[in-house]
From TrEMBL:
<protein>
    <recommendedName>
        <fullName>NB-ARC domain-containing protein</fullName>
    </recommendedName>
</protein>
<dbReference type="InterPro" id="IPR032675">
    <property type="entry name" value="LRR_dom_sf"/>
</dbReference>
<feature type="domain" description="Disease resistance R13L4/SHOC-2-like LRR">
    <location>
        <begin position="232"/>
        <end position="398"/>
    </location>
</feature>
<dbReference type="GO" id="GO:0043531">
    <property type="term" value="F:ADP binding"/>
</dbReference>
<dbReference type="InterPro" id="IPR044974">
    <property type="entry name" value="Disease_R_plants"/>
</dbReference>
<feature type="domain" description="Disease resistance protein winged helix">
    <location>
        <begin position="109"/>
        <end position="181"/>
    </location>
</feature>
<dbReference type="GO" id="GO:0009626">
    <property type="term" value="P:plant-type hypersensitive response"/>
</dbReference>
<dbReference type="InterPro" id="IPR036388">
    <property type="entry name" value="WH-like_DNA-bd_sf"/>
</dbReference>
<dbReference type="GO" id="GO:0002758">
    <property type="term" value="P:innate immune response-activating signaling pathway"/>
</dbReference>
<keyword id="KW-0677">Repeat</keyword>
<dbReference type="Pfam" id="PF23598">
    <property type="entry name" value="LRR_14"/>
</dbReference>
<dbReference type="InterPro" id="IPR058922">
    <property type="entry name" value="WHD_DRP"/>
</dbReference>
<keyword id="KW-0611">Plant defense</keyword>
<dbReference type="InterPro" id="IPR027417">
    <property type="entry name" value="P-loop_NTPase"/>
</dbReference>
<dbReference type="GO" id="GO:0042742">
    <property type="term" value="P:defense response to bacterium"/>
</dbReference>
<dbReference type="InterPro" id="IPR055414">
    <property type="entry name" value="LRR_R13L4/SHOC2-like"/>
</dbReference>
<dbReference type="Pfam" id="PF23559">
    <property type="entry name" value="WHD_DRP"/>
</dbReference>
């Protein structure tokens, strides 16, 4: 990309900091020009610097501008733009408050050019223990939303899709930013990325805290994992249609908190995903199976008493085991509308998100909704339902004035989707 002119660079910086190109105070004019010289007309460098100079909705003092100018060093030059950019971006990382640093490093778990749903990133942060409650009455997810917005305001992540309410639905990360995060993450042994280039014996015998598989080709799937290297892994994620037979046995993991096997089993040589040992992962908080070739969950899934997030969209599972109603810490459940829910779902008193429930296959959920007092996000499919049951559902949802929908889909489309402003007080 051609570098910006001096004038365009100035306009970009000042608009990001002062919301206007003409409102830069006189005492900051000179240092502003000096900083821009070191940005070399590179938009990402300018945006990054702007985020540092106006973090937390406060424009920093002149001495802070001077300090930043001196910290940049030679700035971006034509000699090694990538290296110079990394140096500038690293300032953004070290400027982060301590609670945001692991949240940013965690983004290295995703492949390049990957579009990620905001909510599912926040659920991952929560399962990892990155989100700490600051007030007893504040939901962890809401704190996670603040974390996400802080990173976005610092231009470290970019919105990809935004809904009609102005809320970010999906996001991306700039390749240069991702490269830096991956470098920092690797240096701290925070996440190990296994891809075609890394898929050889010495790396497979390393000990990891978090392991992510990217774009593994069939020709390298004859390598085997050393079970001892996986014993202390906290996160295992797969972003590649690998054969399930090649994946390490779940019995190798002793302290797993996050397991994401989305799309596993789509490989042509796969025999399907075996979840036999998942019941032994007693530390598991997050189980992501979206799009995986899996037919059923273990009947004794209730052993996963710490499980908080379960995503089984796009699987071949058509019925949840009865014991799932014993998962008292479950806060997010995402299913397919044709899946049958067991009776007793009202026992899931911690549930905050219930997505894609089909009333035609689980009509009893209408009566049980009144017990789910913590639910904030609800998505229900009403296709082929009798009008009486839909009327009961509407009365249940609108029976009290204590909540309202932020978003409400047309009933003619066959679904209800909404997010409550406050916890519902079911009649």
């Amino acid at each position: 990309m051609k570098p910006l002119s001096d004038e365009d660079s100035r306009i970009l910086l000042h608009r990001r900091i002062f919301q206007s190109e003409d409102k830069c105070p006189e005492d900051l004019q000179v240092v502003s020009r000096d900083i821009l010289k070191k940005c070399g007309g590179v938009p990402l460098a300018i945006i990054t610097i702007a985020s540092l100079l106006a973090s937390n909705q406060r424009v920093k003092q002149k001495y802070e501008w001077m300090h930043l100018h001196n910290s940049i060093g030679r700035g971006v030059t034509q000699g090694d733009i990538v290296k110079d950019m990394n140096m500038i971006l690293s300032l953004s990382y070290y400027d982060l408050p301590s609670h945001l640093k692991p949240c940013l490093l965690y983004l290295s778990i995703f492949p390049e050019d990957f579009e990620i749903k905001r909510d599912w990133l926040i659920w991952r942060w929560l399962a990892e223990g990155f989100i700490q409650c600051d007030k007893e009455e504040t939901r962890l997810f809401e704190i996670g939303e603040r974390y996400f917005n802080e990173l976005m305001n610092r231009s470290l992540i970019q919105p990809a899709k935004i809904n009609d309410e102005g809320t970010v639905v999906t996001w991306r990360i700039h390749d240069v930013v991702l490269d830096l995060i991956c470098s920092l993450s690797s240096a701290e042994n925070f996440i190990f990325i296994l891809n075609n280039a890394e898929c050889h014996a010495p790396n497979l015998q390393r000990k990891f805290r978090r392991l992510s598989l990217h774009n593994i080709k069939a020709k390298v799937q004859n390598h085997q994992f050393d079970s001892t290297s996986l014993s202390k892994v906290r996160t295992f994620a797969v972003f590649s249609p690998v054969a399930c037979d090649w994946l390490p046995s779940l019995s190798s993991f002793h302290f797993l908190r996050v397991l994401d096997l989305g799309n596993c089993g789509s490989h042509e040589s796969s025999s399907g995903l075996n979840l036999k040992y998942v019941r032994n992962l007693i530390h598991l908080r997050y189980l992501g199976l979206k799009g995986a070739d899996v037919h059923e969950l273990p009947v004794d899934i209730s052993k996963l008493q710490l499980l908080q997030i379960l995503d089984i969209q796009g699987t071949r599972i058509n019925e949840l085991p009865a014991s799932i109603v014993q998962l008292r810490n479950l806060i997010c459940l995402s299913v397919d509308s044709g899946l049958r829910l067991p009776k007793g779902m009202g026992n899931l008193m911690s549930l905050e998100v219930l997505e894609r429930v089909g009333l035609s296959s689980s009509s009893h959920i209408v009566e049980e909704l009144r017990h789910l007092t913590e639910v904030m996000t609800l998505s229900i499919n009403c296709d082929n339902m009798d009008e009486d049951l839909i009327d009961i559902l509407i009365k249940s949802l609108h029976g009290t004035p204590s909540f309202s929908f932020r978003r409400y889909a047309d009933f003619q489309s066959g679904s209800i989707q909404g997010r409550f402003l406050t916890s519902p007080a079911w009649p």
